[in-house]
Design a protein that fits this description.
The complex is a heterodimer of chains A (about 260) and B (about 375). Chain A has about 260 residues and is of the alpha/beta class. Chain A is about 35% helix and about 25% strand. The N and C termini of chain A lie far apart (about 50 Å). Chain B contains 16 helices and 4 strands. The structure holds adenosine-5'-triphosphate and magnesium ion. Chain B: Pfam families: BPD_transp_2 (PF02653).
Amino acid sequence: MAEPYVRLENIVKRFGPFTALNGVNLDVHSGEVHALLGDNGAGKSTLIKVMSGVHAPSEGTIYVEGKPTVFNSPRDATVAGIGTVYQDLAINPLMSVTRNFFMGRELYKGPRGLGIMKMGEMNEIAHDEMLKIGIDISDPTQAVGTMSGGQRQTLAIARAIHFGAKVLILDEPTSALGQKQQMGVLKTIKKVRKRGDIAVIFITHNEIHSQLVADRYTFLALGQVIGAGKKDELEHNEIRRLMAGGAEMRDLEQELADI
Amino acid sequence: MSDRNESDRLQQESTFQRLIRRPEAGSFAVMVVVLVLIAFASNGNAMNALGIKNNLSIISQFGIIATGAALLMIAGEFDLSIGSMIGFAGMSMAMMLKWGLPFGLGEATPFSAFFITLAMTLSLGWLIGTIVVRSGLSSFIVSLGFLFGLRGVTEVTFRLINQSTQISGLQDFKETSFFARLFGGESFGWFYDLAFALGFNLNRRGEQWVTGLDARVVWWMLVVLIAYIILSRTQIGNWIYATGDNKESARANGVPVNRVKVGLFMTTALCATIFAACQVFDTNTADAAKGNLKELEAIAIAVVGGILMTGGFGSVIGVAFGAVTFGLVANAVFYIPWIDGSFYRVFVGAVLLAAVFANERIRKRITGGI
Ligand SMILES: Nc1ncnc2c1ncn2[C@@H]1O[C@H](COP(=O)(O)OP(=O)(O)OP(=O)(O)O)[C@@H](O)[C@H]1O
Ligand SMILES: [Mg+2]
């Protein structure tokens, strides 16, 4: 088996007395879609924040292409090829589409910082990249606050892909979208997977979505991995059971019936 | 099914519609109204040769500090130390010019006095900014501490070295030093010469009346121009907006949020120092009370100029319009004899409230609240 692009080993993350992650292992392979599943509060978002340099792990090691790596900032993670689409999308509502798209990575002429931004070129790229994954925004100078949830999602994904992510982390990318746009995002994930050089980490609460696109699964509950494996190694019922945080679906159904 | 796409849903706007939606639109309208009202009420006296000079003098003072305050507010922070920084910088320069450089380093020149002072004020700006970003405390409180602290330091230093909290009758450095003329001298002399040549700008005896504007007008224009270019055209400008809009997402995208903030606290200190230098070299005096309340006027002007209190939105040009408005009203009492000078504050209060409501509407419209 090829070397995973990113490997997390025994990651522990504490917030004060609260242990959000308790020794998590995760392998991320290029060309694969890795579904990260688990109940609300299981620690999925925390795990990917560790992976993308937002939180430093309390314990454990991150390997990028086999080398132990420390991310001191999100920039470090971006440089290492980890592109993140956060649940809150990391988008600024008062700023224009283009200014959001290039936030922190503006194209400019001249010295860093004081360089003049190439607005025309940036407008064009932002428009084209979003068109490629299915949304034709009318005006790249429009404020993002005025756009729909799906359009914002597209912006965030297009941005991560454009900036050369080797690992594309999508935190619940479909949760706020209508049916058609959900399928659009899944199509995008498939398209990205087909390139073969990008790994996708896909967080979702939707079992059907995960089955449509995922190659590999990791299930979290209360900050720990309770199950992991490739798609063909896992039974459908097993997936459902693990998604419910390890509880038997039948038990839950029974509980519901009892009320 | 038609081949209608997303672009068809946005109505083409006329140029006029685009203009009135710009962030400067409101403050421009207020400025025009005030300009016209004051011109009429003063029988044109506010806009004659001397009126323009005097108005632009105070407009530039307001404009210089309000621009710095506005950039900082767009990045989501306040600086209440601007007024005390003006007092401190003025004291520092005047003191060196009167009593010589510190540590017995000899006589001060306007050049050395200015740059030594600037080094101190920039360091203070850096310190305020660093405390704010490191502690995560509200800049309101941190800079409030400096509002009191710096004013106190200024007074104490004055009394210790100078016995009095005022310095007056400094030598007129404008006569001898080009550098002093840069701050305290005149500008746009050619404009007034031209007006005279064309038969305007005459005094009662038919001679040329006013010789030029204050040098600070040029400083104001420079500050506005540079701030405008930085905010709307450069990479740092994008970082400033991003920092004020949502600093977590800005940080997640690699914007150096802390450095942006610290840099902007240093910028307000720079503006305060320019303000003070113009004052010292123009009047050859300094006073521990100089700059009192200026930080609040700067914030008020920024808000009237369309800057959101919550950050992330606003324009330098709007703030320039705000400075013109405030300057005109502050001076109105000199041209309109029947008006009580305190109406200036009534006006500031009313316009400020109106502006805050208008800005909030804009914010809601953009973020989808309306
Ligand atoms: N900065 C923080 N400080 C303290 N506790 C935190 C912090 N971030 C997350 N937590 C806690 O860690 C736990 C895991 O949160 P996390 O956001 O990772 O869950 P999640 O699996 O993404 O849930 P969801 O499916 O609802 O998005 C939660 O109990 C949360 O309250
Ligand atoms: Mg989450």
